[in-house]
Amino acid sequence: MRYYDSLARLIAQFQKLPGIGSKTAQRLAFYILKMPEPEVREFAAALVEARAKLLTCSVCGNMTDSDPCHICSDPRRERKYICVVQEPRDVLALERTNEYRGQYHVLNGAISPLDGIGPDELNIKSLLARIRQEKPEEIIVATNPNVQGEATAMYLAQILKPFDIRVTRLALGLPVGGDLEYADEMTLARALEGRKKI
Amino acid sequence: MSNLLLNTIKIKGWRNYAGENLNFGPGINLLLGNNGQGKTNLLEAIYFLSGGQSPRTNKLEELIKFDENYFYIRGEVAVGQELKVLEMGGARDGRRMHKIQGVAVHRLSDFSDYFCAVFFLPEDLNLVKSGPAIRRRFLDQELSKINNKYRNSIEKYKKFLQQRNALLKSNIEDKILMQVLTNKIAELAGPISKLREDYIEKLSLLARLRHRKISGGREELSLAYKHSVPPGAAVEDILAMFDDAKEAERKYRTTIIGPHRDDFAFIVNGMELRTFGSQGQQRTAVLSLKLAELELIKAETGEYPLLLLDDVFSELDEQRREMLLHYLSGRIQTFISSSEPVDAGNEVRTFWIEAGTIKERV
Q1: Which of A165, A178, B156, B362 is deepest in the core (most CB within 10 A)?
Q2: Do B178 and B295 reside in the same domain of the chain?
Q3: A186, A187, A188, A192: which to substitute to probe chain B, counting the most B Cβ within 10 Å?
Q4: Which residues of chain A are within 8 Å of residue B177 when distances are taken between CB atoms?
């Protein structure tokens, strides 16, 4: 069946989002139509406002609504560590651990010549400038454990050599709370490689 | 002696079969029928049970009968005293079902722990006749089956190689990035070459013994590994090779050193078969290679896998046929398809295949 035009347009908008297919888009659209009008207005306003206030932190490259971002401007956070991640959502993931109290640097991608992404396309120059200025003790590379992430990590290790600074990479291994027998061989092999004395 | 046996198979909606139930014998099972009746399709179904893959296609849809929406294969497999029921199914929408003893399994490689088969198709002659790509694919497939470390390394190698080739073709000028990717390739290349060398050496030894028997002692077969990077070479040495190849790489804009340039040759009595062998010699060499594979699997797992011979038996001369049967008898459950009658001794079970129906001849 055909929907009236503005409903069809709403469904099409939802379908643009990642992970949303035609059926889910339809469901979301109908849900919105059933919401009370003030709530719909607030929903729409939230979208527009978030976009309007979006800034890129001039220090770390993270998404923020104030420059520098709340992490870079927080005096309680340690200056000794900079954790390099690929995407803003990786910052959120690390923040959820409540373990890390240092700084971040967001590359906004990973090296992949196959997709036309070289080092110049990433937020690497500002990282070097930052290291020169802030003189941190350690760079923690937290890129993804795939080929692009690994290439990026090795690239960073290479260009950071002249700085004479500790460069580490996140450990690879077993997921916490899982069963050993369900881990794939590659993960298990890496976990064995990175075993620790207890 | 414990060897692997496929006692029964049930197929539904597979290729040109609506539904068939068959009991097989422990020795030689002969599948007779005219062309286009479904002999290869039955062999393919048997092979499919060993790991959910077909050498003929990657598309699930092609395996499903044109007027059905899904296929189903159920095999009863005996290993010594143990009986296992293996089931596989696939639907047009891409969903698959794999069960061992009624329990769903997620990793197809688990099937090869219970059921393993070596398939010899007429197009396998290309292993001798065609270019090196098909031989590299053979190495990668077979080695990946028996060595997880190899499988991981070669997958990773191919991904890094793609990135490096893309960099060579792109206008990204970055020496450090190039060095990083070259280092990674060099790191992976040595161990891959080493594993390939070991595998080819073992295969060569076993194939020579088989080939000697089948050819009545007239032919000495060996496999010669032609490696791009010396097996197990140190990373620094491989990097030095890359240094020397800089000019050529810039010219061709692709990576010209590494296991992706490897090959191996079939050599009979000192001559390379690809250029000097007759059709019959080439076919016998591939057969010997397949039998060597059989022996290697036996060495790895303790049991002989099944042997599936599609339309190749009739192409061998009388003497080679007899030698092959002698080797197989009482040892390996074998399925032979042929369009003409084959004299394969007395212990044979014969099936007649016509337009997607199968009847045992008694």
Answers
A1: B156
A2: yes
A3: A186
A4: 111, 113, 118-119, 151, 155
